[in-house]
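Predict structure. Chain length: 303.
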Amino acid sequence: MYGTTKVVPFQKQIQCELLPNAAGSAALSCSQVHAVLFHIGGLVIHSYGAVTALGVLAALGLAVRTARLAGVDAAKLWNLCILSLFAALAAARLLLVAANWGVLRLHPAWLLGLAMVHHPLLAGTGGLAGAGCALWYALRSKLPLGATADALAPPLALGLAFEQLGALAAGSGYGREAGAGIPWAVTYTDPMAMIWSGTPLGVRLHPVQAYAALAFLALSLLLLVWLPAARRKGDVAGLALMGAGVAIYITELWRDPTGRGSLLHGALDGPQIAAILFVIAGAVVMRERKGADCAPSLFTMKP
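Prediction complete.
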């Protein structure tokens, strides 16, 4: 998702396989954090995909509970989640295929490895596709937009927390170089981290993915606690947008900027710009809801 790194060209990925391994003595060696969980014959089970899939299951299970708390049809919300998930995955992978079509035409077997290529642009494309699909299904099924968004907020934050843990294991969206005074720094040694994410090996790095995972987990718990007490539909979704924006902006300060875009001579990167927009959008949503008692809201739909 948002915390992913540059797309490493396939030619560079092949060359990286010969890089030696090294580990910092004072850092957590990534021999304890496996980019690949196990093999089944020729099938490789990657940590990122496995942990993210676990996060999807946890988020779907939580969505059933939050649907009841928000007064939304749980079956329809489940369908919305499944459709949006497939739309997000399809959009991100199609963009990656289109961007690398010339190379993939010559090496069609590389299509099997596309699931391990991550980039902020892919995450943004998938997010927009998923949000568009969710809006379409909600309107088609006559779900109340405010209550539906409230029900989705805690599961989405929980899913992002798991996604960042998967990124930590895979070395995707890695952090900046950490000094000797950071005892919890990580040092990646698995060549797969370099091959798929361009992660530097043998260098002490901030575990920024863990920082982000903790932030999203805390946000999910906060939203879950606040959901039953929210006075107006849409406020939980607004808080989720603002909280996610703050979490993304702050954690980007420790994330390596390579391949993440820049603005104002490097003062901001791409995800930070998106984070600012999230905060603004969340504030607008919550401001809109404050006037809901006096005027109709964009987040209220009549059956």
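Summary: Strands lie at 28-29, 36-40, 43-46, 186-187, 204-205.
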